[in-house]
Amino acid sequence: MTAQRSGCPINLTLETLGDRWSLIVIRDIMFGNRRHFRELHGASDEGIASNILADRLKRLVEADLLSRAEDPSHKQKAIYSLTEKAIQLVPLLVQMGAWGRRHLPVSREMSVRQELLEEGGPALWDAFMDELRTLHLGVPAKGPSVLARLRQAYEEALAEKG
Amino acid sequence: MTAQRSGCPINLTLETLGDRWSLIVIRDIMFGNRRHFRELHGASDEGIASNILADRLKRLVEADLLSRAEDPSHKQKAIYSLTEKAIQLVPLLVQMGAWGRRHLPVSREMSVRQELLEEGGPALWDAFMDELRTLHLGVPAKGPSVLARLRQAYEEALAEKG
DNA sequence: CCTATCTGCTTGCACTTTGCAACTGGTTGC
DNA sequence: GCAACCAGTTGCAAAGTGCAAGCAGATAGG
Fold it and tell me: Is B43 on the interface with A (CB under 8 A)?
């Protein structure tokens, strides 16, 4: 990434997240709960290259959007978690999804989750963020799982598709 | 830009807008009301190169985010306007600004406008979008100018700064 | 008229980033 | 001890970015 261009909030956000992969990685960790390198590499529909994934993970950890921990069950496994800073991207990602859903040729099964999040409004986003804090920061759970609801809607849409 | 990767709304939005300059151009047209090539080239704090600006304008017109019209007062002047599709990016840009303001080293004078938009909430965003429709799509005005309010706040912050 | 300036770009070139495929050194389960 | 798995790395070609200079046509002033 280039050196700092200006103190404009939109520009700075773009400097941090404005490339084709950073937010895809965050999306997969956030909505797909993928926490290991191999999961992120193999499972995303977009097929990120391993060198780019490695680079993005490194940058995101440096930018304090992800944290990296070792898995006690396996000496080579790394667990990537969202930081609070990344969890606060939820409203931004929802807006991105909302705009894409309205204006771009999205597929049904990839947008049911977005639809739920849009309909739920800020209250649902907050509940989702609390759940992410439980999952990634170890904060005790507060309410029922939003992620489970999203996953269920996605799987139903997949089943309908055939 | 690469060929289509997946039907995910977030991914498609990223494919359309996920580079370092597209949203900067839209921001300058939207908040700075810059409508000509030279205005966009010279005035932004980030200093976009003219070839990249030309390329982005072309892509954005092709993506139906901008429209290009000739200026009747000057046969070589082109006027760029936001389309409805681009006007609907307002909530996304506000969220980007909000996140940047909270987590990145923004400057005061570049963030007063964002602050107003955040405080105003969805009602103010709607009023702003209506004003953009008046300015860019020729829809008759509905209410008092949000852009004027934002500009005033920015100029006050600049004056305070010295 | 003639010239200086302004218009939206284009060109050439160096540099950086991306994308693909194969590969690495180490770990684990059987 | 061996196959499968782990998080990456390496080499290389292609694409994208950034800078400086330049361009033809249009306009404004004298």
Answer: no
Q: Does B116 touch chain A (CB under 8 A)?
A: no
Residues 6+ apart with CB under 8 A from B7: A105, A106, A107, A109, A110, A111
Q: Is residue A74 part of a domain?
A: yes
- Supply the range of the domain harboring residue A53: 8-83
* Distance spanning both ends of chain B, measured CA to CA: 42
Q: Is the CB of A4 under 7 A from strand C?
A: no
Are residues B110 and B159 located together in one domain of the fold?
Answer: yes
Reduced to 3 states (helix: H, G, I; strand: E, B; else coil), residue A89 is coil
Question: Which residues on B lie below 8 Å from A111 (Cβ)?
Answer: 7-9
In whole angstroms, what is the distance from residue A73 CA to residue A70 CA?
9
Same domain, B77 and B1: yes
Domain count across chain B? 2
For the stretch B85-125, pLDDT in tens is 999 999 999 999 999 999 999 999 999 999 999 999 999 99
Distance A151 CA to D18 C1' (A): 44
pLDDT at A1 over 50: no
The CATH number of residue A51's host domain is 1.10.10.10
Please list every residue in chain B whose beta carbon sits closer than 8 Å to the beta carbon of residue A65. none
Closest Cα in chain B, distance from residue A144 (Å): 25
